[in-house]
Amino acid sequence: MAQSDPSLIDKAVDPETVESFELGAKTRLFNDRIQLNVAVFDTTYENLQFFVNSIGTGGASATTNAGQATVEGIEIEFAWAISEDLTFNLGYSHQKGESSGIPAEAEIPEGTPPQGTVPNTYLAALDYSTTLSNGEFYIHLDYLKKDEYSLEFIDNSIPQFRSEVNGQLNANFGYKSVDGWGVQAWGKNLTDELTVLYGQDFWFSLYGPSLSSNPDLFNSSFGPRYTEPRTYGITLSYEFD
User: What pTM did the predictor assign?
Assistant: First the structure.
C-alpha cells in the first residue's frame, strides 16, 4: 500500500509487472583480436503505479495502477586488441520508448517514454598498459555522449528532469609496483560538462502557506542537481599482503 490519505489506506495497489525479451550474439574474430557483441531487446511494463498529489487536501496523495509502457532497442559493443598493450573499445545503444493508458491525473502526456530511455548513447575507450621490470604502467581514456532524455516518468517538457551528456572525457594514468604501492594521476569530467543528475519537485504549496511563502526555499525545492564539475588529482596507494 502507498497512500497518505487515511480514506485510502486500506486500498492496496497491484504490483507492476515487466516482460522482457533479448536476443543477441557474441563473436570473436581475427584470432580473438576483435570482439563484436550485438543484442536487441524489447521490454513491456504493465500495471504501472502512479503517485498523484491532490491540490488543496493538505498534501494527501493516492497511488493507482493504470496503463503500460514499452522500451525497445539495440546495443552494440566492439573491442579491438590493437596490440598486447593497447585496447580500443566502442559502444553504442539505441532506445525507443512509449506509454499508453495513463490516467489524466498523473499529468503525463500520451506516448511519454519511461524514465532513463536514452535515444542514443555513444561510448569510446582506450586502454594502454605495459609491464616494466618492477611494475606496470597504464593509461586509460574514456568518452561518453548521450542524447537528451528524461530522468523521471513525467512530462518531458519539465527542464529539471531532463538530462544529456554532450561529451564527457575522463582519463587516468599511473604506475603500480610489484611491491604493492602505486601512484595515479586522474581527471574526471575534463570537458567540464554540466549534466543534470536528478531533479526535485517538493511542491511545498501542497503542505502549507508558511513554506511556500519563502521564495528562496520554494525555488530551491524543485531545481536540478548536477554532477561534479571538472575534477583532477593524484592518488597514492599501497596494498598490504
Answer: 0.80
